[in-house]
Design brief:
There is one protein chain. The protein is an alpha+beta fold. It has one domain (3-304): Clavaminate synthase-like (Double-stranded beta-helix). It is 25% helix and 22% strand. It contains 9 helices and 15 strands. A 7-stranded mixed β-sheet has the order 1-2-3-13-5-15-4, with helices on one face. A 3-stranded antiparallel β-sheet has the order 12-6-14. A hairpin with a 6-residue loop joins β1 (3-5) and β2. The model is unreliable at 294-305 (pLDDT under 50).
Length: 305
């Protein structure tokens, strides 16, 4: 496949591929090879409808479902949009818009979920006149820039995550909603090793609220320092959307965030997250839970975030 780089650290644009033609045996094996190597893939000028979107995402793994819908073709695709059901644009104080704004924090999807995410297939339908970029960094390249001493420490570290953590930072009312408190806290090792190429990546997200063995304030300083270290301005790829763009990224080796746009203008993207399997290296981030304190006990400390 013909490709061009997106950033010195990671990512490539894939040319002359129609995602409607991708199947398990046709084109996907080559796309998956690029995915493992580059962590971020861009496909321009796609005509991707809902069935195609579901099918392509499903090639990477089971489609994640954080709603009450059963896993089938009728489950809704997550809409990343400030357009209300009646066609109007959400008010600036609407909790749904505040929820979108929580995505402006650096994160990896679903670190708060019992099965972590492998990929996100995100496509654009309506874009604003300016702003609304999606920014990404390589946590693999970020890992490589850390000191040897810090890497040794992180190989032993276990980080705690909860769905409500990032929402609380935006709005206490948002963070208190039942939908962001329906899942118990999780704990993952700080390093995810890719089983295909053996490369390590820092596994971190805005959902993180604690580190095993650290007091809450110490843990927050530690997590903030890690976040700052891997999201320096020169490490960021900023994608300006065009309708028909499709981004596919590796959740094991990247973090991403949205950016503001004029909220009186519509911005509508659609996202399908696929879950990782054992073949994707989950074992490398799964901690020895028998040696951890009850997660609910530590999560009580996260209320001050």
């Amino acid at each position: 496949m013909r490709t061009t780089p997106l950033h010195d650290d990671f990512g490539c644009e894939v040319h002359d591929v129609d995602l409607r033609a991708v199947t398990k045996t046709a084109l996907y094996p080559d796309i998956r090879t690029l995915f493992e190597e580059h962590s971020l893939l861009l496909f321009r000028n796609q005509e991707i409808d809902d069935p195609t979107h579901r099918r392509v995402a499903g090639l990477f793994g089971p489609r994640e479902n954080l709603t009450d819908h059963s896993e089938d073709a009728t489950a809704p695709i997550a809409s990343v949009s400030n357009r209300a059901e009646d066609g109007s644009v959400l008010r600036s104080d609407d909790l749904n818009l505040l929820n979108l704004q929580s995505n402006f924090l650096w994160h990896t999807d679903s670190t708060f979920y019992a099965t972590p995410a492998l990929s996100n297939v995100l496509t654009a339908y309506v874009v604003p006149s300016h702003g609304g970029q999606t920014e990404l960094v390589s946590t693999r390249a970020g890992w490589n820039r850390l000191s040897s001493a810090l890497k040794d420490q992180l190989r032993r570290a276990v980080i705690r995550h909860h769905y409500s953590t990032a929402r609380k930072r935006i709005s206490p009312e948002l963070g208190a909603l039942e939908m962001f408190n329906r899942y118990p806290p999780t704990a993952w090792r700080a390093v995810w090793t890719n089983p295909v190429n053996g490369r390590d990546a820092l596994y971190l997200a805005a959902h993180a609220f604690g580190v095993v063995g650290m007091a809450n304030e110490e843990a927050q300083d530690y997590l903030n320092g890690l976040m700052d270290a891997v999201t320096t301005p020169d490490a960021i790829y900023s994608h300006t959307w065009r309708p028909g763009d499709v981004l596919i990224w590796d959740q094991r080796a990247t973090m991403h965030r949205g950016t503001p746009w004029p909220y009186e203008e519509e911005r509508t993207l659609a996202s399908i997250v696929s879950s990782a399997g054992e073949e994707d290296g989950i074992a490398s981030v799964r901690p020895d839970t028998e040696n951890l304190k009850p997660l609910e006990e530590d999560h009580a400390l996260a209320g001050g975030l």
